[in-house]
Design brief:
The protein is built from 14 helices and 3 strands. The chain is mostly helical and 342 residues long. Among the domains are: 41 residues, N-terminal domain of TfIIb, CATH 2.20.25; 94 residues, Cyclin-like (Cyclin A, domain 1), CATH 1.10.472.10; 87 residues, Orthogonal Bundle (Cyclin A, domain 1). A hairpin with a 5-residue loop joins strand 2 and strand 3.
Length: 342
């Protein structure tokens, strides 16, 4: 019994000594003051500096405003959320993505890696000779893997031609995308044997421009293409027939805004040209005539009616047609406007 009491006393003494040596730690006055200052600063950030009202974040406009006085405290805030909306988890997972969007304007749809040709690192410092040799080998192998077969090499060349011609003609991105899709379809349908890559690419761009309502004439396309006008027209007819593309005849009115803008004519002149073409269509004057020639003649005739100084030579250079065509067509348009048969 004494042994048990002695053991209990020893354990109690050890525990008491341990508690005495390790007292309970409490927060000091400096820590409490620091936490209080942080809480006060956080509260001040959520208050209006003018009236002391509550601040709210407007995610739609990227602003932080006061609910009481309407003061805009912060503006042009960064929206770190996605630009799309999702109403369930499945739709969110489907729309979630990383990196740039895919595009049909590149032969690999923009999914490959591009290695820059500047021998510099992320900080703009020049690479050493050993690193430059390594990067050159990586570029070579990257190009080989990007165009592994003849189909990809074909697409790369053709889509490069489409982008070059579209830039020269000032066509928007949606036209380039449509032209790329048309060319891909022609390649899949095996329409290229016996025809040049440049010819099919030019025909695809011509068809896409007409589908989008921003047509360009064959002469304009010939000026930026590497093939002749006859080949473009022949390839265009073949492509739209084989692919079953439904393309309406070009409307002369669609050329008027571009011609008027290039000639720096007024809005009144542009409206007058549109009216002349609408009257010519009602009278049947436009039948069997070039839309480009009618549009150029309408712009010239409208400039005469609104007393704006523009010559036939200036209009012919913008429209890329002859002055004889403008003279013949604008007389017909004016006669149709007066109600006299041409």
């Amino acid at each position: 019994m004494r042994i048990c009491v002695r053991e209990f006393s020893s354990v109690f003494t050890h525990t008491h000594n341990t508690m005495t040596e390790s007292p309970i730690r409490t927060r000091s006055g400096e820590q409490r003051e620091t936490e209080a200052d942080e809480s006060t600063t956080s509260d001040e950030r959520m208050r209006c500096p003018e009236c002391g009202g509550r601040l709210t974040s407007d995610a739609e406009h990227g602003e932080t405003v006061c609910e009481e006085c309407g003061l805009v405290v912060e503006e042009d805030e960064i929206d770190r959320g996605p630009e799309w909306r999702a109403f369930d988890s499945a739709e969110k997972n489907e729309k979630s993505r990383v990196g740039a969007p895919t595009t049909k304007m590149m032969h690999d749809q923009g999914l490959s890696t591009n290695i820059g040709w500047q021998d510099k690192d992320a900080y703009g410092k020049a690479l050493s000779s050993r690193q430059r040799q390594k990067m050159q080998r990586l570029r070579t192998w990257n190009e080989r893997f990007r165009t592994r077969d003849s189909k990809e090499r074909n697409l790369k060349q053709a889509l490069g031609e489409v982008d070059r011609m579209a830039s020269a003609l000032g066509l928007p991105e949606n036209v380039r995308e449509t032209a790329s899709v048309i060319y891909r379809r022609a390649l899949e349908e095996d329409l290229l044997p016996g025809r040049s890559i440049e010819g099919v690419a030019t025909a695809s761009l011509y068809a896409a421009a007409r589908q989008a309502g921003t047509p360009r004439s064959l002469d304009e396309l010939t000026a930026v293409s590497r093939v002749e006008k006859a080949e473009i027209a022949r390839t265009y007819r073949y492509v739209i027939r084989e692919l079953g593309l439904e393309i309406q005849p070009a409307d002369p009115v669609s050329y008027v805004p571009r011609f008027a803008s290039d000639l720096e004519l007024s809005e009144e002149t542009e409206r007058t040209a549109r009216r002349l073409l609408e009257t010519a269509k009602e009278e049947g004057v436009h039948s069997g005539k070039s839309p480009v020639g009618l549009a150029a003649a309408a712009v010239y005739a409208a400039a005469l009616l609104t007393n704006e100084k523009v010559t036939q030579n200036e209009v012919s250079e913008v429209a890329n047609i002859s002055e004889v065509t403008i003279r013949n067509r604008y007389h017909e348009l004016l006669e149709a406007e007066e109600g006299t048969p041409a």
